[in-house]
Description:
With 207 residues, the protein is α+β, with helices and mostly antiparallel strands. It is built from 5 helices and 8 strands.
Amino acid sequence: MMNQNPNSTALPPSHNTRGKARWKLFAILGVCAAPLLLSYFTYYVIQPKSRTNYGDLIDPRSHPMPVLTTLSLEGKPEALQNLKGKWLMVQVDASACSLACERKLFDMRQLRVAQGKEMERIERVWLVTDKALVSPDLQTAIKGTHVWRADAMELKTWLPSEVKTSIHDHIYLIDPLGNLMMRFPKEADPNKIKKDLSKLLKASAIG
């Protein structure tokens, strides 16, 4: 029978088992997070010359999602944070909704449908910047869009616009983590937006 070394520093079996389990958990978490971290590193650090996105990429570190003062048309509190986990197409317009406004709303509806089986990963949001009535007919036509009232100054502080445009001219894209990541140009070509959305949904496992 072998004598045990009284000076041995071997850990009890239970401690070794817990340690191995902990490292396995860290490894699994690392593998799950790697694709997302790699995609952001590629977009914002490497920025390959072959990238051909139509929308303007926005550094999410410069425009974190704020806690906005938003209400449903019925006056109930709402929050963009509650839509995390989905890709969000967002537009900002007055309740009167000009022809350009209507076009963006209909484009967002069709862009979502055009993604086929991936459409459930996308939500549409119209942030209304005044307290006037929104046409019931328009609400029916864009059924499924989250129509919320928001403070215009809060939105201007958060959302960047191009030179000689306003936040009313763009469709913005927010990723499932809540990062504002892309802005589409004024009078954007929906076919080109569709290509950007398709690429992002295909490349991302989140949302």
